[in-house]
Every structure is written in C-alpha cells, then in structure tokens.
Amino acid sequence: MTLKICIAQLNFVVGDLAGNAQKIIDASRTAYAEGARLVLTPELSICGYAAEDLFLRPAFIAACHDAVKRVADELAALKDLTVVVGHPTGGDRRTRSVAVQDRLNAASVLRGGDVVATYAKRELPNYQVFDERRYFTPGQGVCVFEAGGFRIGLLICEDAWFESPARLAKEAGAELLAVINASPFHVGKGYEREATMRERVRESGLPLVYAHLVGGQDEVVFEGHSFVVGVDAEIAGRAPSFEEKLFYASVKRSVDAIDVVADMVPERVLDADLWDALVLGVRDYIGKNGFPGVLLGLSGGIDSALVLAVAVDALGRDRVRAVMMPSPYTADISWIDARDMAARLGVRYDEISILPEFEAFKVSLAPQFVGLAEDTTEENIQARIRGTLLMALSNKTGALVLTTGNKSEMATGYCTLYGDMAGGFAVIKDVAKTAVFRLARWRNANDPYGTGASPIPERIITRPPSAELRPDQKDQDSLPPYEVLDAIVEHYMENDEGIEEIVARGFARADVEKVTRLIKLNEYKRRQSPVGIRVTHRSFGKDWRYPITSKFRA
Q1: Catalytic residue, candidates 43, 74, 132, 379
Q2: Sign (positive/negative) of CA torsion 201, 271, 8, 148?
Q3: Which of 6, 47, 143, 157 is catalytic?
Q4: Which helix H or strand E contains 176, and what residues bound it?
Q5: Does the active-site annotation cover 415?
Q6: Is 121 annotated as catalytic?
Q7: pLDDT, mean of residues 134-150
C-alpha cells in the first residue's frame, strides 16, 4: 500500500482569500494529476500568516469560512483526494472595553466537497514575533484522519514542539504525523526545526511530514525548507528553501513499519540562507504591495552596496535605481566606487550634489547659530537633504526608497532621523555590521540569481567605514570596533544578558556601558524607523518592545 503526499510549499498573500484559495485549488489539481491523494498546505494558508488584527474582525473570519467552502467545492470531483487547509475559525464575545477571543487557529480536512474533520492548534506561541494568544484560544481535541489507507495525525506548528500532542495523536491511532507550519525564518532555524522533529519521531515512533510556508510578509520571511523524517528519526527528504514547490513524499507500509521517502536537497551554508531571505523579503514586500521598483542612495560605502546587490537580485536591474549624492566631505573614491558598482550591475545611476542645498541651509540658519561651533547638527542636515531628495524621487516615480542602515547602527543610534532613516523598507535592519562585510564577500564569491559576478568593488569592502559627514570621519571615532560592538549587542539585545554578565565575558566595561547606554537612549529613533527584514532570533521589530521613557538599564 502506497500513498503519495504533496507538501504544497506555497507563497500566500495575507488577506487575499480568493487568490490564496485559487492557489490551493490549482496546486491540488496539479498534485492529483501527479498521483498524489493527500495535499498538505501550510498553517493558515487560506488567509496568510500572520493576519494580525484582521483576526479580530468578524467579517474576516466569515470570509475565511467562505474561502474554505470554495476550496472544498472546487475539489469535490477529485475522487479520493484529501486536502488539509489552514484557516482561522470561531467568534468572540465583545463589550465596549473587552474582547474575549473564541477564535481558533485551525486546519480542516477536505474530501469529496465536505469538511470531514477540523483540528485546532493546542499550543499557542507567545514569544519573539509570535502573538497568538492575542487572537486565539487553545484547541482541546485530537485529529486523526484517514487518507489512502493510512491514519494520519494532524498537528499545527507549535504543537510539534511539545511531546503531548504527538503522543495523543498516536494514542488515537495515528500511524504518521503531518505537521503544517508557518514559522518565521532566522539564520539556522530550518535545521533547528529538523532537529526538533527528529526528537518527536524518536519519542512517538511515528514518521513525520512537515509542510512549511514560503514567502515574505512585512518584516518576516518564511523559508519553506519542508522536509520528511523517517521512522528511524533520520531526514528522509528535504524541499528547496526560499522557493515555491510542490514537494512529493511517498508513504509505504512494510511488514514492520511505515516508510516515507522523498527527494533530498542538500544542506546549505547559512550565508546562502541569509542572502536568500533578504532577497525574498525585498521581492515580496515590493511585489505584494504593488511598488513599480525601488531606489536608494548609493554612497560608495559597504551598507548601500550590499542593499543594492540584494535589490538587483530580488527585482532585476530594470526596477532598481541608485542615486549618488556627494557632499563637500565625499571622498573621490566614494563616487568612483559607486559608479563602478552601478555599472557592474547595470542599474540606472544618477549623481545629485547636495552642496547647493547644504550651503543654503547654513546661510538660512547662520543668524540662529551665531557663536556656535559646527557639530552633528551640520552632519545631520546633510543626511536630511539626501533623505528629502530620495523621497522626492519616490513621490515622483512611485518607486520605494530602500534605507541602508544596519543593525549595529539601529542599536546605537548611529543614524539620522528623517535622513538616512528616511524610506519605506529597511533591507539590512537586522544584519549586524560584521555580517554586512561577511555577506558582501559571500555575494562576490557567488552569483545565485545570475545578475552579475563580483558586484561589489573590493575597495568598498576593505576601506574603513565612514559616514563622510565631516573631514576624515571614521565610524570607529564614535563607536567601539564593530567586532566588539556587535558581540555586545548580541549578548545584551538578542540574549538578554546583563551588563555584569557581559563584562565577565571579557569585554571592557567602558565599551559595555557605552553600547548598552546607546541602545537605551535610541529607542525613540527605532520607533520611527521603517519596517525591515527579520533574520536573527531577535530583531528591532515585533520581538523588541521596550518603553521609550524608562530609567532601567540591565
């Protein structure tokens, strides 16, 4: 006895219920023609993940129910086909001041035009970017359904990170576990999932198929990387990462066990995953929101160079524009390298000097600044002129401005409000400066999208980083070395370690005090920064919620 399963690793759009339903219908028909009799779609596939406060709207839940019914009706004629569809369900009890959620994060099993079973997620994550207890109540039941002569236990995402749901499914007669999932990417997360699911198989003795979402949704990215675990707790198949795929697994019943086999994509280096996450994040944010293209300020520095390379890989050269805006302090090598890189990638490149505007600002402000020395005020004016120019071009063309600030700058406030922070999408907001350099070297050694080998001039990578807002300026005039700074940010911001713990690791107290103080002082800036792609297990986004007004520092 053999059952062919299709893991529909698909890219859905939040709120596009008709489009998502049609994608499930089309994938199911294709899978059926290929001989599959069970199709697994990811968690909340009908509505997309995560729909956030749309889950609170009764009309949204009703529309999701209608979309599930449409899928069931459209596939009713496909004999013996079973399709698992993720969707929200339920209602709530409301007063003017309180809303008590009765909604469930559910999955329905469809066959012959009917919903033959519905399962509600038992374990609701409420950490990092997850906020499911705001929207859902935990499910209580167990779902074991039949497909192709096999009894399959259904779990949703977090359920599979605990022993109990799998055990209960086995006690209810499951022979195979099917996990549908939508869990945001961070570097290394795919292999963490594999390790955890192998542990579930060891505990339960049941093989497992894992269907994961792919795509970008605002600040989070889902990498796909669906997989299959055999009864021996070894990975028996793995789907590609960062691309849509109908991934097939064959389940066979032998005398002693149930065997599961599928194609196997090899493991990848983590920087390849990180690059693809940034590319997919940009492509889907621009595509799903309907922007015709992007533009960015190309300074001749490492951050804007990396963002340009990501943008071209994501969108193609014809939808990317680079603008160099030299000031009186811009070194010749900066515009030389900027021109070189733009030529290598074939993007539109323009130069707009900010000198006339800068001089005009200084003249206008001279009566107010009498007797005051030049300081960061004049530096910030330059950044804000550039931001104004880029936003004007954005307004005129419809292209979205990509900002180029990295995580190290976001942490310490080494950025200018309404200047280099001005824009619509922060591509490397969660990429530390040391990782920026590493990724630039990785991209120069690899051309995964065929847009050009070695796109970043070597001098951009090797020269000391500088904002070039005053003579002979270097980042390290104001900040500790990035190797030190980034390590402190990781310990303090990502891992919640206290100052004394970090000092005990061997870091200079002065550096730790300075970096942690800057993190605290610049919360007000981060609150006004554009949304950006999350690629670490803790970013300055949904999983960082600190008060601006606070006296506490750990």
Answers
A1: 43
A2: negative
A3: 157
A4: strand 176-181
A5: no
A6: yes
A7: 93
